[in-house]
Amino acid sequence: MKIYKKGEVIAREGEFDETCFILMNGRIGIYKDNKLISEIYERGSIFGELSSILDQPRTSTIVALQDSQVIVIEKGIDELIKKHPDVTKKLMISLAQRLVNTTNQLIDKIEQK
Amino acid sequence: MNSVYVSKKTYKKGDIIAIEGENTTDCYVLLSGWVGIFKNKIKVDDFNIPGTVFGEISFLLDKRRTAHIIALAESEVMSFRGDVEDIIRNYPNIAKKILVSLADKLRKTTENFVLVIDEDIQQALEGSEQ
Q1: Domain of residue A97, residue span
Q2: CB within 8 A of B114, min separation 6: which ones?
Q3: Most buried one in A41, A100, B123, B128, CB count within 10 A?
Q4: Quick check: B44 and A96 CB within 8 A?
Q5: pLDDT single digits (tens) B16-30
Q6: Mean pLDDT, rounded, of chain A
Q7: How many domains does chain A have?
């Protein structure tokens, strides 16, 4: 568990690390090209997982918008699977739901054309 | 208790592996061949790399198939069903494949969506200039 102060950078776009995070309380912002593209405030939310799973540099910068308590999973996805099967399940379901939503939006857009 | 069921099957070219709307929750791993995902007759994805996971949406969300899955060439496919947490505990490699597959598809779909939106914005801008 780690506490990030308001304004503190949790991860930086372009950086290469395997860490993924679980929000315990507080508020997190995801920035791309200095634009806020998403806010995370729900307890138990997983973030920073795409870089961790895909083993790619960060595609966005993660900043604490308030003082935030965060579980840091440093060895990334392998550790998560091994030590937290319940959280892994939640992560899978959340990714699957996001994929369904994005795919539907994409299909709608393609059909409109 | 381990409640995971695993089986293996070979599909011929053109065989339907799963039908959109069908109430089945198997998750699949491609062992060899070529498989396509079709939604409203639009091919939304296809894969030929052994180890690719597909059909995981119904498996994870316990919902009806959101797309048709069709063998585009003769394909050998492993399927499994059961409790998600049992799979994570007993088959961590498969769990990782599922995560990687979801993350990769999400990234691809998001990129495509952004491209389509960008086209819209471009068109709107061009329209307003005339």
Answers
A1: 2-112
A2: none
A3: A100
A4: no
A5: 999 999 998 899 999
A6: 87
A7: 1
What is the arrangement of strands in the sheet containing B4-11, beginning at the earlier edge strand? B4-11, B75-82, B27-32, B53-54
The per-residue pLDDT for range B73-106, each reduced to its tens digit, is 999 999 988 889 999 999 898 899 898 888 888 8
> Which residue, chain included where needed, has tokens 């109430």?
B23
Provide the token pair at A18: 């395997």
Q: Give the CA angle between residues A86, A91, A93 to the nearest 5°.
A: 95
Q: Which of B88, B104, B105 is closest, CB to CB, to A85?
A: B88
> A33 pLDDT exceeds 80?
no
State whether A102 and B116 contact (CB < 8 Å): no
**Hey, are the CB atoms on A110 and B116 less than 8 Å from each other?**
yes
* pTM higher than the cut 0.80: no
Q: What is the CATH number of the domain that holds A72?
A: 2.60.120.10
The encoded tokens of residue B32 equal: 């060899």
Residue with tokens 């069921």: B5
3-state helix/strand/coil string of A8-40: CEEECCCCCCCCEEEEEECCEEEEECCEEEEEE
ipTM: 0.79
Per this entry, what is the length of chain A? 113
